[in-house]
Amino acid sequence: MDIINSIVQRKSCRTFSSESLKPSDKKQLEEFINTGKNGLNGETVDFILLEKSDTDVQMKIPYGLIRGNKTYIFGEIRSSPVSRINYGYLLEKIVLKATELHLGTCWVGMFDREYFNDVQIETDLVIPGILVIGYASEKIPVKEKLIRRAVNADKRKPWESLFFNYETKEVLKKQENYKYVESLLMTRLAPSSGNTQPWRIYYSSENNEFHFFKKITNQTYELKGLHDIDMGIAMSHFELVSLKNGLKGDWQKNDISKINTIDDLQYTMSWKCEN
Ligand SMILES: Cc1cc2nc3c(=O)[nH]c(=O)nc-3n(C[C@H](O)[C@H](O)[C@H](O)COP(=O)(O)O)c2cc1C
Questions:
Q1: Which residues line ligand 1 (CB under 6 A)?
Q2: Of 57, 66, 70, 61, whose CA–CA distance to 22 is shortest?
Q3: Position in ligand 1 atom list of the atom nearest CA 233
Q4: Residue 264: pLDDT band by 50, 70, 90 thresholds?
Q5: Is the pTM of the predicted complex or chain greater than 0.90?
Q6: Distance between start and end Cα atoms, the chain
Q7: What is the pLDDT of residues 14-23, one digit of tens each?
Q8: Residue 226 Cα: closest atom of ligand 1
C-alpha cells in the first residue's frame, strides 16, 4: 500500500476485535517506531507499544466510545506547543504505517491518564494523546456511526477554506504550484481532534514556501494542546506525500516578526521547497 492509499483508506476505528497484534505486525510496527524517533527541531520521542491483557479492565474514554482494543501507542514529551506539534508529526507516521499493515487506529486526546499509571513517566513530562490500535471489528455498531456523524468525520472543509496565496491572501489557485496539489489534498484528509481541521496553509510564491498556520476552532481542544497535535499531523501528511512525489524540502520556523499577521491565525512552521 503506498502512502496515498494509506491516507485515503485511514479512518478512525473505535470498535476492535479482541485479537492481540499478530507477532509479524507487532514486529514491523516496533521496528518502524524505533527507526522513526527523530522529529522536528531535532526532538526525539520514545514511543511505547503497550499491550494490556484480557484480565485488565478497559480504559474509560470520556468522549466517543472505543471498545475491544488491547494495544496502545504513546510517548512522553515536555508540555510545550513545539513538542506537541512534533508528537503529532511523529505519531501520525505510525498511524499511516499501521494503516498499511491493515490495522485500525484512533487518536485519543481525552483519555484516562491513570490507566497508564504502571508506566513510569518522568515528573516534568506528559502524555499529550494516545493511539488506540488493533484489528477493526467487522461490525460497526450504531453508536460508532453516530459518533462519526456527530463530528462529520467523513467530511472535510473545502479547498477554498484551507489553502491560500500568502502574498494576495486569495484562495490558492492549483496552477500556482500544481506540483504540490496532491500534498495539499492529502493534508486535507488528515485526522484532527473533533474533526476541527485547524490547519490553514499559505503558499508564498515569492519565497517558494508553504506557511502553516493554526486556526483555533475549539477552545477545549486548544487548552488541552490538541490543536498543536493536529498541526503536526497535517505536517506529516504534507511531507510524506511531497517526498513520495519527489518534492524535497525542509521544515523551518521563520522568525515570527518576518511573518505577516493573518486574521486570528497563529503561525506554526513553514515547508521550504527545494525545487
Ligand atoms: C489529536 C486528536 C485527538 C482525538 N481525540 C479523540 C478522542 O478523544 N476520542 C475519539 O473518539 N476520537 C478522537 N479523535 C478522532 C477524531 O474525532 C477523528 O480523527 C475525526 O473525527 C476525523 O475522523 P477520521 O479520523 O475518521 O477521518 C482524535 C483525533 C485527533 C487527531
A1: 11-12, 14, 63-64, 106-110, 129, 151, 153, 191-195, 226, 229-230, 233
A2: 70
A3: 31
A4: very high
A5: yes
A6: 27
A7: 999 989 999 9
A8: 1
Task: Look at residue 126 and tell me whether its pLDDT is greater than 70.
Answer: yes
Q: Which atom of ligand 1 is found nearest the CA of 64? A: 11
- The closest residue, in CA terms, to atom 2 on ligand 1 is 193
SS (H, E, C) the chain: CCHHHHHHHCCECCEECCCCCCHHHHHHHHHHHHHCCECHHHCECCCEEEECCCCCCCCCCCCCCCECCCEEEECCEECCHHHHHHHHHHHHHHHHHHHHCCCEEEEECCCCHHHHCCCCCCCCEECCCEEEEECECCCCCHHHHHHHHHCCCCCCCCHHHHEEECCCCCECCHHHHHHHHHHHHHHHCCCCHHHCCCEEEEEECCCCEEEEEECCCCHHHHHCCHHHHHHHHHHHHHHHHHHHCCCCEEEECCCHHHCCCCCCCEEEEEEEECC
Q: Looking at the predicted structure, is the pLDDT value of residue 271 above 70?
A: yes
* CA 52 and chain centroid, separation: 24
**For residues 145-169, average pLDDT:** 94
Report all structural domains of the chain as residue ranges with CATH numbers, in order of start: 3-145 (3.40.109.10), 159-273 (3.40.109.30)
Among 90, 82, 85, 106, smallest CA distance to 36 is for 90
Which of 60, 61, 93, 108 most suits a substitution to test ligand 1, by most atoms within 8 Å of the C-beta?
Answer: 108
In ligand 1, the atom with minimum distance to the C-alpha of 14 is 11
Pairing of strands 130-134, 209-214: unpaired
Distance (Å) from CA 109 to ligand 1 centroid:
8
CA of 194 to the centre of ligand 1 (A): 6
